[in-house]
Structure to design on (517 residues):
């Protein structure tokens, strides 16, 4: 052992996340969050006969996903479920929906998460309406070292009736995600002056424009801020609404000079659904359905007395041509998310200062250099922290990086649970079984089927990448193989940067202005 390292540092480097001396036998593993990755962790724990408890802040499992239930995923059903979860579901008569269909968030909750929560191995071990407010080491604050690993972890949770419960655990898997903690609209990572007062005008990042929230946008002017797929979803839905509802208008404001990264590679995008999204958005802008304002940095909000009933909010910003004001009846803040780290102040976590992701994972997912899908396989060793037995997984493990892959989260928890069960070999055998185009976040698409399957020109279009590519390198243009991409498996030890072609080059560093952007 390096004498300059503490015991905790050495164990973190080795990826040791288990409690080796057995002093905490009899305590459960606490899983925070009952979304897809949290329930996958529960299924993995059940499969290894490990005691566990799942704590979910929402009133039902998949509560966060249900809030954007109208949105379709980029990936079809065949890549949206966890293997251990399927093993629990299938004896109940559950069958995987059509493998090539793109589910909505609501369908994933209804047809997968809700049935999974009811299987005998999980039922009774999930507490909904229970919000975790802190994780700590029992009897110690974060500064105490002596005897630290001999104490169990402590999870403080608040029930729906306000009662506070302290739960001791031998390990904690935090899969609570980032939903509900959006980035502010102001520049420099800070809220703009007046942003709090403008709250009545602000919507969530994925409002249901054509359904539940339709009346809020009909006949009104909406300002959409942001340059991710959440913004694209909303912009396209608003454009569809404007075609049938007179007086409905849309402005799209971005800080950058180019939107090429969101337009993506069109037919050349490794994920056809995402490529179609970018193509449709570009067409809507070119046709004048959406007014695009580039280089707009928000510097303040002026809210009229009386709020929305008194008129639009005035959103002021700085542009290359000087100050500009955009009036809006509604402002969609599609500016991304950040993790809740306040609840972790009393545990020792090793986070990258830029992404707020686990330090060993951060270089693989840094959005400055990686586009969605260019992450190599990673597992328990990359997710371990100096606090033995504590892990961040799923969307929260990616911190502020907007590149999370659901299937990657499933592999994360498989590896972590194997380590907690003492199966080091399985924990280290990290592989991703994904379509060669990768799997990504969410996208609003009109079609129910993944582009590239039945009725889609045999899957080729004009060009689409199916070859694994080194991060930042252009993908192969050949794809005239099977209509549905064949899965590939990439294991631990793959070359650094190995990932999947996505049509987005170099992450943020590929944002150079293009003539067609």
């Amino acid at each position: 052992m390096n004498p300059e390292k503490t015991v905790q540092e050495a164990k973190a480097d080795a990826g040791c996340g288990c409690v080796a001396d057995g002093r905490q036998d009899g305590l459960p593993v606490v899983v925070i969050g009952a979304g897809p990755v949290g329930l996958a962790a529960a299924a993995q724990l059940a499969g290894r006969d490990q005691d566990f408890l799942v704590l979910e802040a929402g009133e039902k499992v998949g509560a966060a996903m249900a809030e954007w239930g109208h949105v379709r995923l980029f990936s079809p059903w065949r890549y949206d479920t966890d293997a251990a979860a399927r093993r629990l579901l299938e004896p109940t008569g559950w069958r995987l929906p059509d493998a090539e269909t793109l589910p909505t968030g609501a369908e994933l909750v209804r047809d997968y998460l809700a049935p999974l929560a009811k299987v005998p191995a999980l039922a009774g071990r999930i507490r909904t309406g229970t919000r975790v407010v802190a994780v700590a080491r029992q009897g110690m604050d974060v500064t105490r070292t002596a005897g630290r690993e001999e104490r169990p972890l402590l999870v403080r949770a608040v029930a729906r009736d306000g009662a506070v419960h302290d739960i001791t655990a031998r390990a904690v898997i935090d899969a609570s995600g980032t939903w509900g903690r959006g980035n502010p609209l102001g520049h420099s990572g800070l809220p703009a002056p007046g942003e709090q007062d403008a709250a009545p005008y602000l919507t969530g990042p994925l409002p249901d424009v054509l359904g539940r929230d339709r009346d809020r946008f009909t006949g009104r002017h909406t300002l959409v801020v942001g340059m991710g797929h959440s913004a694209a979803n909303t912009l396209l839905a608003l454009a569809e609404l404007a075609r049938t509802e007179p007086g409905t208008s849309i402005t799209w404001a971005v800080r950058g000079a180019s939107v090429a990264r969101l337009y993506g590679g069109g037919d050349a995008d490794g994920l056809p659904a995402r490529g179609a999204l970018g193509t449709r958005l570009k067409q809507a802008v070119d046709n004048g359905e959406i007014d695009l304002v580039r280089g707009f940095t928000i510097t303040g909000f002026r809210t009229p007395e009386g709020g929305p009933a008194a008129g639009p909010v005035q959103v002021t910003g700085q542009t290359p041509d000087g100050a500009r004001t955009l009036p809006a009846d509604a402002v969609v803040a599609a500016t991304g998310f950040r993790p809740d780290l306040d609840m972790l102040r009393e545990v020792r976590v090793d986070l990258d200062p830029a992404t707020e992701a686990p330090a060993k994972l951060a270089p693989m997912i840094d959005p400055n250099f990686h586009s969605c899908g260019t992450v190599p396989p990673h597992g328990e060793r990359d997710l371990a922290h100096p606090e033995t037995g504590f892990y961040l997984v799923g969307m929260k493990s990616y911190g502020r990086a907007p590149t999370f892959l659901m299937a990657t989260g499933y592999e994360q928890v498989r590896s972590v649970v194997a380590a907690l069960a003492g199966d080091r070999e399985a924990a280290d055998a990290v592989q991703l079984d994904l379509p060669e185009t990768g799997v990504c976040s969410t996208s609003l698409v009109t079609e129910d089927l993944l582009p590239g399957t039945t009725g889609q020109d045999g899957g080729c279009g004009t060009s689409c990448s199916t070859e694994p590519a080194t991060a930042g390198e252009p993908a192969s243009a050949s794809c005239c193989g099977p209509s549905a991409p064949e899965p590939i498996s990439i294991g631990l030890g793959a070359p650094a940067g190995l990932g999947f072609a996505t049509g987005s080059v170099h992450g943020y560093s590929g944002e150079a202005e293009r003539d067609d952007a």
About this structure: The domain at 195-333 is CATH 3.50.50.60 (FAD/NAD(P)-binding domain).
